[in-house]
Amino acid sequence: MHKKIILQANNISKNYKDALDNSINILSNININLYEQESVAIVGSSGSGKSTLLHLLGGLDMPSSGNITFLDKPWGGLDKKQSLDRNKYMGFIYQFHHLIWELTALENAMLPLWIAQGKTHTPSQIKLASELLDKLGLSHRLDNLPSQLSGGERQRVAIARALIHKPLCILADEPTGNLDRKHALNVFDLLQKSCEEYGATLVVVTHDQSIAGQCSRVLAMDNGKLELQ
Predict the structure, then answer these.
(1) Is 49 helix (H, G, I), strand (E, B) or coil?
(2) C-alpha span between 99 and 141 (Å, rounded)
(3) What distance in Å separates the CA atoms of residue 221 and residue 26, rounded to the nearest whole number?
(4) How far apart are CA 57 and CA 90, in angstroms?
(5) What is the CA radius of gyration of the chain?
(6) Is the dihedral of CA 43, 45, 51, 52 positive or negative?
(7) Structural domains in the chain plus CATH codes
(8) pLDDT for 74-120, tens place per residue?
(9) 121: exposed, middle or buried (C-beta count within 10 Å: 0-12, 13-18, 19+)?
(10) How would you class 210 by CB atoms within 10 Å of its CB: exposed for 0-12, middle for 13-18, buried for 19 or more?
(11) On the CB side of 23, how many CA atoms lie within 13 Å of its CA?
(12) E strands along 75-135, which residues?
């Protein structure tokens, strides 16, 4: 049985203009199919275009040429509907977690629900976030602010925030880049198991070959081109 394609990039390229108005090519003719419930690692040196590709796949930026489809529909743009769709279908995890420092771990995890539902701190939101944080080993940290958490704990809160609305796709940009080896492997193991439990497709940008090796596919980015490793 063929798996369903969740996200597809067709011949996408990305160019930027420098201060002298010269065109700088970041990505060249990228083609990729991402299937339901698979895990894909994208590896490559710094500056090779990995994060740029992740932003395009997440609809946070538009390609200079080519097209991206999500669930067979055009993807990318900053209008209200696209923003709501990103919140509904996508979960984002970044290297620096980007938690809101004024909110507790529980509140940070609930943020996507607040956006989707237009209300905050409902009993169902609190129950869902509490249960998810408990699965991630943070039941004793619900009321702690990010400043009171360790690096690994902050990343686990970021994972909870990305999974809270059970998205179809998780995009993770160096999610363990600031952690030591032990904590990096533990956090990624939690992320991967959570994605498997919730049936989410996982795309992770990483420099860590041991983490990449745990994914079902590894793609290598080199000078703006993507190839199977």
Answers:
(1) coil
(2) 14
(3) 11
(4) 10
(5) 18
(6) negative
(7) 37-48+77-228 (3.40.50.300)
(8) 887 666 677 777 888 888 888 778 899 999 999 999 999 998 888 99
(9) exposed
(10) exposed
(11) 7
(12) 90-94
Strands of 39-43's sheet in order across:
90-94, 169-173, 201-205, 39-43, 217-222, 225-228
Tokens of 143: 């009321």
For the whole model, what pTM was predicted? 0.87
Q: Among residues 86, 79, 84, 36, which one has the least CA distance to residue 56?
A: 86
How far is residue 169's CA from residue 202's CA, in Å, rounded to a whole number? Answer: 6
pLDDT at 61: 85
Distance CA 47, CA 224 (A): 9
CA torsion sign, 159 to 161 to 162 to 165?
positive
Q: For the stretch 51-82, what's the b/e string if a residue is b when 16 or more beta carbons lie within 10 angstroms of its beta carbon?
A: bbbbbbbbbebebeebebebeeeebbeeeeeb
Provide the residue type at 30 as one letter.
I
